[in-house]
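Lab notes, practical 5.
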Amino acid sequence: MQNILVVSLDTVRADVAYSGKMTGIEALRRGGVTFRQAVSSAPFTPVSHATVFTGLQPARHGIRHLLRERLDPDVTTLAERLKDAGYATGAVVSCPGLNRWYGMDRGFDHYDDEIPRLPDGSDPLTTPDVKQRGLALKRAPLVVERALEWLKHQDGPFFLFAHFFDAHWPYEPPEDFCPEAANPYEGEVAYSDHYLQQLLRGMAELGHAPEDTLIVCFSDHGEDLAGWYPNDHAGSRGHPYEDGHGCLLFDATQHVPLVIGGPGLPSGVEVDAQVRLVDIAPTVLDLLSMDKEDLDGVSLAEFFGPDGAGTSRPAYSETYYPEERRADGQYPDLVPLAAVRLQDDEHGGRRKVIWEIGTDTVELYDLRSDPDEQRGHTMSSAPAVPRN
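Output from the prediction step:
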């Protein structure tokens, strides 16, 4: 039974993760398979992580808003499956969106979700503003310290989930680990990346060499920086209600990094076919020869040949957060959205359909000619939206 490490670099855009500036991510890429076109199911933490740890899309795992739902009690998590298989299971998480209230602690022997209260003393779990929730976090050094402390006491096979929240607003990197960082946000990503390396070194010192461990590193969603990057849409770019992420389904938040490495897997392989975060759980189960039936995701094992060849999958995303965002009355016209991102393997084309749920408004984007999604074509009828 091989050990398993799953790392979530919360709020990290794919273009920043793959910029070559993040030495920890680059080391993982050299030792594993990089999925350059991975797509998240939702642009905020609890929904996206629930999809990762169940292999189900939001409609089936039950969490579709930031604050309203908990994980469906009939759904089995990856941690529950691994615990039943004999793994010690531990998690260190660092933000309100992964509080045990949501139910994602199920199956973990140890689930460290301690975070401070907000500066005004209020409970961050009850705050509906995704930006303000970023003020309550466990910083990366503490994540590493507590993860290694738990690992120190494990003798048998383990499943460790380490969650880094530093790239979330406010962008105030405590130290400069990346002289090439273009902005404070990239500095925060580099800060997480530095402590990711610390975690891997600490594991090796405890006798758990990274090359002998199945490692999955991903981000749950990206970040719209309101003009720091060409594909931003927030703020003066036309969507003033988008505070980093949550309300929109453009690639700034939905295109995320995903790297998988481990014993028997190829090294330094890059996959340009489109995959989804919903594929992570069935992939882990497949590599462990465990049952992966009745999941929405599909194992990525077909990409683990030396050339990384495999077939692109249509990627479904949704956000119902606009319903919560409009509750304060400031943006009464916000509506939930669904999107499907498609990739044509033969011609290399990518397209996206974004539908305003409950209306007839549909926008089409050709990501080949318009990679920054600035020239949508509006249609007047809603499509049938695949969810797998």
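Observations recorded by the TA: The chain has a mean pLDDT of 93. The radius of gyration is 19 Å.
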